[in-house]
Structure formats: structure tokens, C-alpha cells
From TrEMBL:
Taxonomic source organism: Mixta tenebrionis
Protein name: Amino acid ABC transporter ATP-binding protein
Segments forming a coiled coil: none
InterPro entries recorded: AAA+_ATPase, ABC_ATPase_HisP-typ, ABC_transporter-like_ATP-bd, ABC_transporter-like_CS, MetN_ABC_transporter-like, P-loop_NTPase
One Gene Ontology term of the molecular function aspect: ATP binding
Classification via SUPFAM superfamilies: P-loop containing nucleoside triphosphate hydrolases
Keywords: Amino-acid transport, ATP-binding, Cell membrane, Membrane, Nucleotide-binding, Transport
Its membrane topology: Peripheral membrane protein
Amino acid sequence: MITLKNVSKWYGHFQVLNECSTQVNKGEVVVVCGPSGSGKSTLIKTVNALEPIQQGSIEVNGIQLNDKKTNLAQLRAKVGMVFQHFELFPHLSIVENLTLAQIKVLQRNKEAAREKGLKLLSRVGLAVHAGKFPGQLSGGQQQRVAIARALCMDPVAMLFDEPTSALDPEMINEVLDVMVELAHEGMTMMVVTHEMGFARKVANRVIFMDEGRIVEDTRKEDFFANPRSERAKDFLAKILH
Ligand SMILES: Nc1ncnc2c1ncn2[C@@H]1O[C@H](COP(=O)(O)OP(=O)(O)OP(=O)(O)O)[C@@H](O)[C@H]1O
Ligand SMILES: [Mg+2]
């Protein structure tokens, strides 16, 4: 579903991604972790072309991102992205937040979009909040709305960038539960997170990044039992305590 080959990227003289290669198969869940500044956010942003790359190639669902003929807006609509901050439109109701892109980007009619939005809202357990505004919901609830909004677009894959790290501790699990369910339903997912409980539960593989490189890309069992690099050992020791 997602293939990266020797992806390199620079900000000016600073190389933020260094020859990153990996592959995520359909239905696979890959957790991306590593120290702050190692390039995790940049890496997953390249997958839906939010960040251009200077070297290498990226293919998503058979579509080459660096091909000039590729319609990037259409591609982005098909790859759901959930950020740390939920970025719902504050002046729109929850149901309007869920229908806007369906209508504008997918040209669904209002009724169909609303039906889809409400269906996904109830799937994340928030049907009763359809008429409220984002400011009236908790952080965890807003993040679940953000996930529902991405799912409204019928994505072929979902990218998450630390979706729970801005949340109060008691709200983390309600968001992770939704993500675990998605994983069990077979969604292809790339998830930047330091929630190792989530990784243990649903990840197929773990990618560990350091200084713009993919240092480890292994089955989850191997990553936890037997990280190869010193850097990953060090990181795991810190994060698990
Ligand atoms: N727009 C930008 N311009 C210049 N440098 C940037 C830009 N965005 C990120 N960087 C730098 O690129 C490096 C990688 O950033 P990135 O956000 O991908 O790291 P990260 O692994 O997601 O870190 P964190 O865990 O803190 O979120 C950092 O050193 C950062 O300062
Ligand atoms: Mg980041």
C-alpha cells in the first residue's frame, strides 16, 4: 500500500530524512518511534505529499507521488491524516466538520455526506454530540471526531502523528481504543506514537528513527525483545520506565 525507496529530504543544508526505505502492506499497522527531532513527523508527512522530497520515491496505493501527473489533492483525500492537534473547524458543528470535505472534495451530496458523517460519528461513540461545536467537546472527543472525519473520506490508509500526546492521561485510552478497533478491522496504518502499549497490542512492525534514518524496521516482537541498535535499546529503556 505504501512504499518508500531511498527517500531523502533537506531543509536548506539540514538533512532531515536520510535514505529512508520501508514498505507498509495492505492491512498492516506500523508504529514509528524515535527521539524528538529524528524526522518521524516529516517522514509520515511525505507519505501524503504534505512535505516534498528531494531524492527517492514514494508510492501509495499504486500511485507515484513524484509523478507530475499525480493529482496530489485527490491522493491526500484518500490518505487520512490525524495530527496531535485536532484541527477541527471551530465555527462549524461536529456534523458540518464531518461533511465539509466529503462535499467539497468528493462531491458527495449533502444528504449522503451527512448520513456517512453520522454513521462514523456513532462508530467513535459520539453520535449524541453531532450538533455541538468542537469547543464543547473534550480533547479526547475532538480527536475521535478528527478520526471519524478522516474515515468519512474512505481512506485507503491512515496516518497518525502522535494523536494522543496532547491529551490528558484519562482521555488517551478512548482514542487508542478507536485506533485499535480500526487496526482490527484491517485498516492500513502508519502511527507515530510513543504509546508502546498500543504498539504491543496491534503493531505488525516497529520503525525506529534516529537523526533522519530508519535505524530499525522489524517485527514488533523483535523490536521489544531484541532491539539491535544501542540507540533503540536506550530509547526503549527510557520510555518503558
Ligand atoms: N519546516 C522546517 N524547517 C526547518 N527545519 C525543520 C522544519 N520542520 C522540521 N524541521 C527539523 O527537522 C527535524 C525533524 O523534525 P520532525 O518534526 O520530523 O521530528 P520528529 O521526530 O517528529 O520530532 P518530535 O518527536 O519532536 O515530534 C528537526 O530537527 C526539526 O527541527
Ligand atoms: Mg513529530
